[in-house]
Amino acid sequence: DTAVSQTPKYLVTQMGNDKSIKCEQNLGHDTMYWYKQDSKKFLKIMFSYNNKELIINETVPNRFSPKSPDKAHLNLHINSLELGDSAVYFCASSHPHSSGRETQYFGPGTRLLVL
Amino acid sequence: AQSVSQHNHHVILSEAASLELGCNYSYGGTVNLFWYVQYPGQHLQLLLKYFSGDPLVKGIKGFEAEFIKSKFSFNLRKPSVQWSDTAEYFCAVNARGGYNKLIFGAGTRLAVHP
Predict the structure, then answer these.
(1) CA B38, A45, B57: angle at the middle one, nearest 5?
(2) I need a labelling partner for B105 at 20 to 30 A (CA). Which of A77, B10, B46, B93 fits?
(3) Residue with the larger pLDDT of the pair A107 and A96
(4) A17-75, pLDDT tens digit by residue?
(5) B1-37 confidence digits (pLDDT tens)
(6) Nearest CA to A11 among A1, A2, A3, A21?
(7) Which residues in chain A touch residue B51, judged by CB atoms under 8 angstroms apart?
(8) Which residues of A touch B46 (CB under 8 A)?
């Protein structure tokens, strides 16, 4: 049983295109996250949603727009892709965030390459 | 702003050697501390976490970490590594009440040779 799944696993696209990455969790969690891992393996949070409400929005270009149709899904749409967007994008989920003690469960990652 | 430093970017050990990976954080308030591991080709998974109480916490696969508040450190240890411990190790911190926003260190790549 896959806990946190992401599609696609790999995404190769041209500069200027628009693409989406999907994330689904079957853990019954209320909170979901998107992280970006750059070429040096540095992981940085981008967004977090709690029960479909945006609660963390880091300084991410507004070309990136998360969408949460329901609490089990958090998709990431990227407009006008740039070379610097090439990275691995990880989705994660956890129980509600209130104490900060909740373990985040990560998906397998989506490797995005912008040419 | 919070930050996390992992001093060793690349560690190479032989099997059965002891391991200690350093992690220091910068934050004036109360924090929760985590170590995550990423095996080759796999997703991140939790090794262990510390919230309060006994500063020595034990995790999966024989790993442990010690929280030293005065040093703002949370070092990861394992007395005897195995080849299967080859992976990338990430230290992370979040502030209490901070929406579970994890701040990660840059990671330490561990290679264990048979």
Answers:
(1) 50
(2) A77
(3) A107
(4) 999 999 999 999 999 999 999 988 889 999 998 888 888 888 788 999 999 999 899 99
(5) 778 999 889 999 999 999 999 999 998 788 899 999 9
(6) A21
(7) 101
(8) 103-104
How much is the pLDDT for B19? 97
Q: Position of tokens 């896959």?
A: A2
Comparing alpha-carbon positions, the chain B residue that sits nearest to A43 is: B104
- The terminus-to-terminus CA distance of chain B in angstroms comes to 41
Q: What is the pLDDT of residues A79-100, one digit of tens each?
A: 999 999 999 999 999 987 666 7
Q: What is the mean pLDDT of chain B?
A: 92
Q: Tell me whether residues B97 and A99 touch, CB distance under 8 A.
A: yes
| C-beta atoms of A98 and B97 within 8 A | yes
What type of residue sits at position A68?
A: S
Name the residue among B88, B90, B82, B78 with its Cα closest to residue B110. Answer: B88
Phi, psi (rounded to 5 degrees) for B96: -55, 130
Residues near A72 by Cβ (< 8 Å), separated by ≥ 6? A24, A25, A26
Strands (E), A1-115: 4-7, 10-13, 19-25, 31-37, 43-50, 53-57, 64-70, 73-78, 87-94, 105-106, 110-114
Closest-approach residue (CA) in chain A for B88: A41
What's the angle, vertex CA A27, arms to CA B59 and CA A111, rounded to 5?
80
